[in-house]
Amino acid sequence: MSILENTLSRRAMVKVSAGAALAAAVPAGTTACAPEPAPTITPDRGRAIELLGAIWDQAHPFTLTELPYPAYALEAAIDTLTMEIHHGRHHQGYVNNLNAALEGHTALHGRTLVDLVAWWDALPQEVTTAVRNHGGGHLNHALFWTSLSPEGGGEPNGPLAEAISGRFGSFSSFREEFSNASAAVFGSGWAWLAAGADGRLEIVSTPNQENPVTEGMTPLLGLDVWEHAYYLRYQNRRGDYIQAFWDVVSWEEVERRFSVL
Ligand code: MN3
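Above: the input record for the complex with manganese (III) ion. Below: its predicted structure, written as tokens.
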């Protein structure tokens, strides 16, 4: 892969927490791209693959996993019908489309989901779009369901709490910055708390179904802000959905992900 290609892929992700000064200097409606040195993609991606492999190491044929709670369990924040459609149809659709796209590519059947998504831009051209969209969709949603819990909410503890306070000033500052990043996603996409190769926490957003792993980062917590994730109950009020999300975040799971960094 050329440096140019990798640079282009990096443009897809907006680094939100690169610095308040940078964000403030960029007029609304433009993409805030932090100036970065020429990218070195290995071993950063390889490290994220290793860490996420323990979370999600499926290979072809991919399968939809069960929700770790009943569809009605998050009712206080996310209604049952949305959960059923989101998991049973949207997520299932990503799985089906990914399997179909890779059907004839047996050389890729041993590759894990995280590996494929991290390197989608280096795959055979016939499958790059499918892996980017549907592989990313499968990975993102698998990470999403397991980061939510009916017993969730509150604040993280231990080393993650210290890291968040150290990076963002306080948990409430982090929460506000993450909420703002989620609200600012134009169209369909995700906001993430992710860790760089050096372990530094960042708030980033990705368009469509892209995942921070493609940028060599390890996703710790993601919020799906596609309209299919909230429209039945919240309609155009994405901000209300974002606020409700905080009541069901499983900090226990996010702490676990952070602990393997
Ligand atoms: Mn979704």
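Notes for the reader.
Residues 86, 90, 141, 224, 226, 228-229 surround manganese (III) ion (CB under 6 Å).
The CA atoms of residues 97 and 134 lie 6 Å apart.
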